[in-house]
Amino acid sequence: MVVAGLTGGIATGKSTVSALFASFGAAVIDADLIAREVVARGSPAWEKIVEHFGTGVLRQDGELDRERLGGIIFSDAAQKDVLNRIVHPEVFREMDRRIRELGEENRAKVVICDVPLLIETGMHRGFDEVILVYVPEPLQIRRLMDRDGISRDEALRKVRAQMPIEEKRAYATIVIDNSASREETAGKTLQVYQYLQERAAEAECKGKR
């Protein structure tokens, strides 16, 4: 089995590539979905969040009010760090559990872990491959403007709030350039998937010797 981390930047098309990998047969583990699950009402992470931020971040049904919590951490880096220290370890543990489960059941040869903050959290060091979905920053800004209907200044602010996409390239072992059409990106993604399948097959052969 080969386990690859998949990341990108805002409006680079990471979700599109993630869906393509799934359509080709890879097992995709989505960190964003897990992040929602681990903060469900009554969970250990939920309890820590309420203890720190107070009941004001809860909806009437007791679940987290993501918009309200987001408003708190958006302009306060210290509070954002607190939230990340609560949530990230829970996400990583659940991802590891799912990877082990897939390995034990031999349900997938290629596992893609879709993690937006893969490099920022240092999690990239634990994967066989680090795949970056890339577009140049000017195109990233233009696509974000079109997608969200926002001004260039707002798009620039959101892009610049993240780790620069060019800086992420230095950490990637595989880069999927999503600057052209969806069809071209699909072709590139398929090539990467086939390469990962080959790596998985080689690893399995070595394991049987």
From TrEMBL:
Q: Which GO terms describe its biological process?
A: coenzyme A biosynthetic process
- Pfam families attached to this UniProt entry: CoaE
Q: One MF term in GO for this entry?
A: dephospho-CoA kinase activity
CDD domains documented for this protein = DPCK
EC annotation?
Answer: 2.7.1.24
| Xref: Gene3D superfamilies | P-loop containing nucleotide triphosphate hydrolases
InterPro entries listed in its UniProt record: Depp_CoAkinase, P-loop_NTPase
Alphabetically sorted, this entry's keywords are: ATP-binding, Coenzyme A biosynthesis, Cytoplasm, Kinase, Nucleotide-binding, Transferase
Question: Where does this protein have coiled-coil stretches?
Answer: none
Q: Which family does it belong to?
A: Belongs to the CoaE family.
The record's NCBIfam families line, in alphabetical order, gives: dephospho-CoA kinase (TIGR00152)
Q: Which HAMAP family does the record associate with it?
A: Dephospho_CoA_kinase
Its name, as the record gives it, is Dephospho-CoA kinase
